[in-house]
Amino acid sequence: MKKLSSLAIAGLLLTTSTSFAAGELHIYNFGNYTSADLIKKFEKQFDVKVTLDTYDTNESMMAKIKAGGSGYDIVIPSDYAVDIMKKEGLLEATEPDKMENFKNIKPEIVNLYYDEGRHYTVPWQIGVTSLQADTAVYKGDLDTWSVLFNPPAELKGRINVLDDMISVIHAAEHYKGFRLCASDKSELKQINELLLAAKPSWRTFSYDAPTLLQSGDVDASMIWDGAAYRAHASRQTLKFGFPKEGVEGFVDNVAVLKGAKNIENAKLFQNFIMDPENAAMISNFATYSNGIVGSEKFLDKDLSNAPELQRPANFKVSFSPPCSPEVIELYNKIWTNLRK
Question: What rounded mean pLDDT belongs to the chain?
Answer without folding.
Answer: 93
